[in-house]
């Protein structure tokens, strides 16, 4: 029998996790509970058989796995409200940005398996990159949490000290990649394509490029070398982009995002 999962916080991320768990058949709809203060916006999940409630305590009491998916400023209030329902038999997973395991442990005041997971918005289509760290967890519990998120995309285990960096590279990285695609589309329109066709070409090209790296394990430069012929149009375009600061601006953006999240 599958573990029953309570998702505390039915916002965009919490709802996407619920959808992914259901679509991947990791859990039956009746084994997933999603909570939200105002439940009317969760009607789509309810129509699929997922249990919807505004009672966090009841959801935690009835579940084996708790996924905390609220906003950072809500964590203290929510944890204080449910901590009496938690015990060492339950697996607790936070997908909240910037809240440390120790911060949660201080509120909960008991030893139980605690995980932090940082997915990205591609979790909605089961293509997330999720970084995970844990405390007080057995190998069996670690395996279970990894299997859960592998149903929603790819998973890597990292030290908690890298979690903010993971947020930038993996979660903010979605926006960086999409901004590149948008620019490519605009360039495509300028050289003659209509917007719809340029969008298809740009998006599929990025998807194919990523799969090349994932499936072959090659460094990006190895794949770049295959399409940069001497005196060709590819190297001319790449050199112009670099002269305009393409790589350096992206690196600077990543570092600035990291400094912002680390400072806050």
Question: Which SSEs are present, and which pair or pack?
Answer:
Blueprint: E1 5-8, H1 12-23, E2 32-35, H2 43-47, E3 51-53, H3 56-61, E4 65-68, H4 75-82, E5 91-94, H5 101-108, E6 114-118, E7 128-135, H6 139-150, E8 153-157, H7 163-190, H8 195-216, H9 220-225, H10 233-243, H11 246-263
Parallel strand pairs: 1-2, 1-4, 2-3, 4-5, 5-6, 7-8
Antiparallel strand pairs: 6-7
Helix pairs in contact: 7-8, 7-11
Describe this structure in words.
This protein has about 260 residues and is of the alpha/beta class. It has 2 domains: about 5-160, 3-Layer(aba) Sandwich (Rossmann fold), CATH 3.40.50.720; about 165-264, ProC C-terminal domain-like (ProC C-terminal domain-like fold). Helices cover about 50% and strands about 15% of the residues. It is built from 11 helices and 8 strands. An 8-stranded mixed beta sheet has the order 3-2-1-4-5-6-7-8. α5 (about 100-110) links the parallel β5 (about 90-95) and β6. The longest helix has 28 residues, at about 165-190. The chain is elongated. The model has no long low-confidence stretch (mean pLDDT about 95).
CATH class of the largest domain: Alpha Beta
**What share of the residues does DSSP label as strand, in percent?**
5-15%
Summarize the helix and strand pattern as letters: EHEHEHEHEHEEHEHHHHH
**What composes the largest sheet?**
8 strands, mixed
Instruction: Just name the CATH architecture of the largest domain.
Output: 3-Layer(aba) Sandwich
The shape is elongated
Q: What is the averaged pLDDT score?
A: 95
Query: If you compute it from the alpha carbons, what radius of gyration comes out, rounded to the nearest whole angstrom?
Result: 21 Å
- By CATH, the superfamily of the largest domain comes out as NAD(P)-binding Rossmann-like Domain
């Amino acid at each position: 029998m599958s573990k029953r999962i309570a998702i505390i916080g039915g916002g965009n991320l919490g709802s996407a996790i619920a959808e992914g768990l259901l679509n991947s058949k990791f859990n039956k709809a009746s084994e997933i509970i999603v909570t939200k203060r105002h439940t009317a916006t969760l009607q789509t999940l309810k129509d699929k058989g997922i249990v919807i409630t505004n009672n966090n305590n009841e959801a935690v009491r009835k579940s084996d796995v708790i996924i905390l998916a609220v906003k950072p400023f809500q964590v203290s209030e929510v944890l204080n409200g449910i901590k009496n329902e938690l015990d060492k038999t339950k697996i607790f997973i936070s997908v909240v940005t910037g809240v440390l395991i120790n911060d949660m442990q201080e509120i909960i005041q008991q030893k139980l398996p605690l995980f932090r997971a940082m997915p990205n918005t591609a979790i909605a289509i089961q293509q997330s990159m999720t970084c995970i760290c844990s405390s007080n967890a057995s190998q069996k519990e670690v395996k279970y949490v990894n299997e859960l998120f592998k149903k929603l995309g790819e998973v890597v285990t990292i030290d908690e000290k890298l979690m903010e960096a993971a947020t930038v590279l993996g979660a903010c990285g979605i926006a960086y990649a999409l901004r590149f695609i948008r620019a490519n589309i605009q360039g495509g329109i300028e050289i003659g394509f209509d917007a719809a066709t340029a969008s298809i070409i740009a998006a599929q090209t990025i998807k194919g490029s990523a799969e090349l790296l994932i499936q072959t394990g090659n460094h990006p430069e190895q794949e770049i070398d295959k399409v940069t012929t001497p005196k060709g149009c590819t190297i001319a375009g790449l050199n112009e982009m670099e002269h305009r600061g393409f790589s350096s601006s992206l690196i600077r953006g990543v570092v600035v995002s990291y400094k912002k999240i680390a400072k806050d």
